[in-house]
Amino acid sequence: MTDQAEQRRVERRADRFAERAATRIWQEEPADDNPYLAVAARCHGYELSQLMQRCSFPQVLFLLFRGELPDVRQTQLLERLMIGLINPGPRHPATRAAMNAGVGKTDASHVLPIALMVMGGGHLGAAEVEPSMRFLRKAVDRSPQQVAAELLAQYEEQPEDSDHHLVAGFGRRFGSADVLAAGIADELIATAGVGSVLAWGRDFAAQLRDHQMGWLATGVAAAAFCDLGFMPRAAAGLFQLLCAPGLLAHGVELANKPVTALPWISDDDYVIEDEK
């Protein structure tokens, strides 16, 4: 390393750091006799005790991320989204991870983190939600027919494309369009005063129907997050949060059952592809 490069490295290392952590989200009032304990808390200026008395969980969740309480339509949309995503279902790899962890007698505090690690992946997981939001935010000002035509023109069908994602949040599951995800989207769109992104996504998904593709749950979540005004960087964590109850429930369900409660995969069912 040259002297100049070393000097630059030292200068970067000497950046001035903040003297203490700061947040605009949460304010705590310290106790008189112990400053490490809080006697009261406020979320974006709202007393926690008042929020507990007067607000629902979806309203306070919205407040945490947006800095203001939602109106009636936003509350209804978020609440319906939370219910729609509450359980990815036993076909989802993250749910299977929770079930395996539970029946395997994993420590109870580790079941949900294990499942969320799988839910954080790019296949039907949280890592797909942020790019789906970014796609939707750019595409919403264009014709869904035009966007679909451009993407389909670049797509060449392959025999192994049973789970192909044409673009983040849209594609097929097990060779077909995801009917349940489309149904959840329809319920959200029926919410009075819903924003424009979910409606655009519905029209875009309709253009994919003849190709056995459409909404995926990650795309539904992304569109709803856009209409709720959440930032894309929060999308992955919010998706995991909304799916977490179902993951935990499936893991706990099997926690007191014997290992024989799940199928044993025989050696014949494992396939190792030849290296090309």
List keywords for this structure.
2 domains; 276 residues; 7% strand; single chain; 6 strands
Helix-and-strand structural type: mainly alpha
Largest sheet: 3 strands, antiparallel
Low-confidence stretches: none
Helix proportion: 40-55%
What count of domains describes the coordinates?
Answer: 2
Shape assignment: globular
Number of DSSP-assigned strands: 6
Strand order of the biggest β-sheet: 1-2-3
Short description:
By secondary structure, the protein is mainly alpha-helical. 50% of the residues lie in helices and 7% in strands.
Structure explained in plain terms:
The strands form two sheets. A three-stranded antiparallel beta sheet has the order 1-2-3. Strands 4-5-6 form a three-stranded antiparallel beta sheet. Strand 4 and strand 5 form a beta hairpin. Helix 5 (93-103) crosses helix 12 (235-253). It has two domains: 9-54, no CATH class; 93-253, no CATH class. It has twelve helices and six strands. The chain has 276 residues and is mainly alpha-helical. The chain is globular and about 70 Å long. The mean pLDDT is 92. The chain starts with a helix and ends in a 23-residue tail after the last helix.
